[in-house]
Amino acid sequence: MAVGLLRVWLKLYGTETLKEKRSILEGLLIRTRREFNVSAAELDLVDEPGAALLGFAHLSNDGRFSDQVLMELLKRLEGDRAFYVEDWELEVL
Question: Structurally, how many domains does the chain consist of?
């Protein structure tokens, strides 16, 4: 069994309040859970309106498959115009 973990640091465009931030992140987390069958959560920077640290986990029998799913998810995030992916970390255990 393999577990893929992806941490993504985001800069959010045009968000000045936590309410605006949570509105963007809530929809994003719901979409990624549904489309990529991953667990997803905001991990840190919860009190900063312009930044977020998100975590995604994927469980599989094959580590290469988890890696592939999480890289596709990252590509989707990088194509979003509501925020900028500052940095990311991916590991498969």
Answer: 1
Non-local CB neighbours of 74 within 8 Å, separated by 6+ positions: 6, 8, 85, 88, 90
**Interacting residues of 67 by C-beta distance below 8 A, sequence separation 6+:** 4, 90, 92
Half-sphere exposure of 93 (CA within 13 A, CB side): 7
Q: What domain range includes position 78?
A: 2-92
What is the Cα gyration radius of the chain? Answer: 13
The CATH number of whichever domain residue 68 belongs to comes to: 3.30.70.1120
Residues in contact with 71: Cβ distance below 8 Å, sequence separation at least 6, in sequence order: 90
CB-count burial class (<10 Å; 0-12, 13-18, 19+) for 79:
exposed
Q: Can you give the pTM of this predicted structure?
A: 0.87
pLDDT (tens digit per residue) in 8-57: 999 988 888 888 888 889 988 999 999 999 999 999 888 888 899 999 99
